[in-house]
Each structure stands twice: as C-alpha cells, then as structure tokens.
Amino acid sequence: MVSTSTVTTLTIFSFFVCFIELTVSQQISTVDSECTGRWIHIRTLPSRFNLDLLSTCNHYPLTDDLCPYLANHGLGPKTHTRTRSWYRTDPLLLELIFHRRILEYPCLTPDPNLASAVYLPYYAGIDSLRYLYGSDVNSSADHGSDLLSFLTQDSPEIWSRRSGHDHFLVMARPAWDFSQPLTVDPPIWGTSFLERPEFFNLTALTLESRFWPWQEQAVPYPTSFHPHSLPFLESWIRRVRRSRRTSLMLFAGGGGTSSTPNIRRSIRLECTNVTETEPETSSEKIKTCDFVDCSNGICEHDPIRFMRPMLQSSFCLQPPGDTPTRKATFDGIIAGCIPVFFEDQTAKMQYGWHLPEEEFSEFSVTIAKEDVVFRGVRIADVLMSIPKEEVARMRERVIEMMPRVMYRRHGASMGLMNKKDAVDIAIDGVLQKISSRG
Ligand SMILES: *[C@@H]1O[C@H](CO)[C@@H](O)[C@H](O)[C@H]1NC(C)=O
Ligand SMILES: *[C@@H]1O[C@H](CO)[C@@H](O)[C@H](O)[C@H]1NC(C)=O
Ligand SMILES: *[C@@H]1O[C@H](CO)[C@@H](O)[C@H](O)[C@H]1NC(C)=O
C-alpha cells in the first residue's frame, strides 16, 4: 500500500511539474484580445503548500486514506475500468482538481503585473486537517501564518500591489471550518484562516459559505461525473431524459434516527411509513418514496449506490445535515432529479454564481422545514400536487443546469470546453468580484 501511494504521488508530481512548464511557455507567446481583463497569474508556491501535502496522503487523521483519490489529478480512480466519465471523487480534492484545470486556462500570464487575478495553489483544506483533527488542534489560530509570511517576504510587491484584493484560492470545505475567532481560547472548532485580518481582502472558493460571507464564495461540490468530450455529456443527458422515474421522491443520506424532531427524522418517518404501508402493486405503479441509507459514509466514494436511484426518481430531497449544504444536491442535478430544499441556506443563498438565485423556483421546490417538522405538512402531498407538465418542465431546467455544476475532466475536447462548467463559472465570478473592487 505504502509503495503504491508513493508511486501515485510521484506520478502526480511529475505530471504537475511538466504541465506547469508546458503551459507557461505556451502562454508567453499567446496574445489574445479575449484575455483583456482576464489574465491570471499562478503564484509559484514552495511545495510545502501543495505537493508535499499530497505525499502524506495516507497519514491524515480521521479521514480515509486519501491516496487512492489523488489519481487522475484529484478526480479519483474510475468507478470501473470501462467507464470514460465516472470517478470515485472525494470533494476535498477540489483543490487539486481546480489547480489542474486552471493550468489549461487560456489567459495565464507569468507576469503578475499584467494579471487581473493571482491564484494561490495552496491546498488549504488538506493542510487544515492537522488543525481540525490532528496534532495541531490547539494551535488552529496559526493556520495561514506560514502562507502569510511567504507572501509578505518573497516578492512582497505581488501581495501588496492590491492589498491582497486580487488574490484567490480554493478551500474545499465549508467556510465554518476556517472561521474560528482568533480570541476563542480554548478553540471550539475550526482554524482561524478566514478570521485573520491580513486575509480579509482575498477571495476563497469554499464548498459552503457562512451566513454572512465575507471573503468566500461557495462553489459546487464535485460529483463523480467528469466527462471529457461533448458526445459523452450528450449521451448521458439522453439517458437522463429517457430514464423511467419510478418513484416520486428519493432521500439518499444518513441521520434522522434520533428522537428529537428535525427534518431528517420527519423525512425518514414519512418515507418508511409510505414505503411500508403502500401495497405491492403492478410495476406500473409509482412508488411514493425511495430511501438509500448512506449512514457511516458508505456512499462517499461509491456513486453507484445513489446515482441509479436518483435517475429513477422525480424529486430528490435535500435536507440540511451537520451543515446546511449537501453534495447530494449536485449528484441529484447530474441525475436530472429535481431538488427539494427545506431551507435557503442549502443552495439558494450559497451557489449564486452557478445556480442563479432568481431562477430557483424553475428547477427546484422549496418546502419550509418548520412546515414539515411542526405543522404536519407531508412532502409527498406537496410534490404530488405539482402538475405532470410542470414536473417535466422543471426537469428540463435541471438538465440545463447540469453543465454549470459539473467539473469536466482536464484535457477535454474543444466541443466540451465551449460549454461553461463549474470551474469556468467560478473563474468568471472571481474576475468579476475582483474587478468590482476597483
Ligand atoms: C489540546 O488542549 C487540551 C486542553 O488543554 C488538551 O487536553 C489536549 O490534550 C490538547 N491536544 C493536543 C493534541 O495537544
Ligand atoms: C484591504 O484593503 C483595504 C483597501 O481596500 C486596505 O486599506 C487594507 O489595508 C487591506 N487589508 C490588508 C490586510 O491588506
Ligand atoms: C403513517 O401512515 C398512516 C396511515 O396512512 C398515517 O395515519 C400516519 O399519520 C402516518 N405517520 C406518519 C409519521 O407520517
């Protein structure tokens, strides 16, 4: 195992290094008016900020061995040998996936003075594991000190040119994990990276933002679907359209087993109740509720468990859990399963760049969780009352959203590159956010 990991890591090292050199040398000769106002400089960081963090992939506390998931530049191993688009992706590795993808960005410049934005290839979420769960738990206020000293000592003019306003990085966890006030002693939860005044001006792409976001913008959780050419995306979309939706609604997740009232518990009760009381009838009959038990993380790297049921269900229930957002929101969209939200913090107030807020009611349903938990509203009744044609229209809108939340594979075909995916939209958003600061 150890030797396999070492080989994996070495392979990744050499891929990255070769790629960086290739891209930069190509870009110097590219002068393109389409790049006006869009140039990005990738800051060269010492390897302790990125690649070294991968070489210890099997030593991180409280997580699985991360090593297998580094394969394919962070997309993870393929789900089975013959697939071209499906991977066992760990969302934490978005830092790696994004890094690999931005190397293909057409407007890279080696000159920071020409750049509208400066990308920091720091794997902040992976580095945070030692503070969140490991030996540095009592010094979580230090997260970011090392990066800050580098930025302020090595070519300090790059960082100071715009007081950090033009710098951005990916932190592939909820922003809560980086928002421990510096004054809390002893620490309760999280590092203080986003609480350091020196970092107030930078932009962080996180998987979830706080209720009052400051530096961060939430971007979609990576799913397992990473096509590399248009025909593969199109054939998947055809499959999604054709799929027989044999159940009204689906919940794929864990929790809800405690006796205190909460939305997951209500869903579990409603689902098990209808599933058990409904008489077995002919195959024509639509099942009211399908339930995929994902307790103890068993679904995490196993998309087959939930993608098939999601393809067979009209609606996918997306209740909040430990935090308001869920990766399953995006798995469901990839499956053409209309999301049902129970609070706006799950998606509407998070992913405004990727899922336009004003269009939410066209591709999703919102039912207030209080109505379900305390006022006896049955989710199935609400969903059954939506006319069939309206459901079909909503599904088409979900399918339109699919490319926007998907992370296509690096090295994709030109045809697919013409469709904006989650990385393209995140980069557009970053550039716009930075330029709006003047
Ligand atoms: C962190 O501090 C607490 C309380 O002072 C202590 O019990 C614990 O052992 C410390 N943990 C580590 C990893 O040093
Ligand atoms: C953040 O930007 C403002 C100007 O917009 C500047 O006054 C301030 O010093 C900056 N903060 C840091 C820590 O650089
Ligand atoms: C379960 O179903 C029965 C019969 O349809 C109904 O009376 C009861 O209220 C349901 N319980 C829950 C928790 O939905």
Essential attributes:
2 domains, five-stranded parallel beta sheet, disordered N terminus, Exostosin GT47 domain-containing protein, Exostosin_GT47, Exostosin, Rossmann fold, single chain, alpha/beta, 438 residues, 10 strands
Task: Compose a concise summary of this entry.
With 438 residues, the chain is α/β, with parallel strands linked by helices. It is built from 16 helices and ten strands. The protein is globular, with a radius of gyration of 22 Å.
Topology, pairings included?
Elements (H helix, E strand, L loop, with lengths): L1 H27 L11 E3 L8 H5 L38 H9 L14 E3 L4 H9 L12 H9 L2 H5 L6 E8 L28 E6 L7 E3 L11 H13 L4 E7 L9 H15 L9 E7 L10 H8 L1 E6 L9 H7 L3 E4 L18 H4 L1 E2 L2 H6 L4 H6 L3 H18 L8 H4 L4 H14 L3
Parallel strand pairs: 1-2, 2-3, 3-4, 4-5, 6-7, 6-8, 8-9, 9-10
The chain binds 2-acetamido-2-deoxy-beta-D-glucopyranose (NAG) (3 copies).
Order of secondary-structure elements: HEHHEHHHEEEHEHEHEHEHEHHHHH
Q: What ligand species are in this complex?
A: 2-acetamido-2-deoxy-beta-D-glucopyranose
How far apart the termini lie comes to: 51 Å
Strand order in space, largest sheet: 1-2-3-4-5
Number of domain units = 2
DSSP, total strands = 10
The main β sheet shows up as: 5 strands, parallel
Share of helical residues = 25-40%
- The DSSP helix count reads 16
CA-atom Rg in angstroms: 22 Å
Low-confidence sequence ranges = 1-7, 20-29
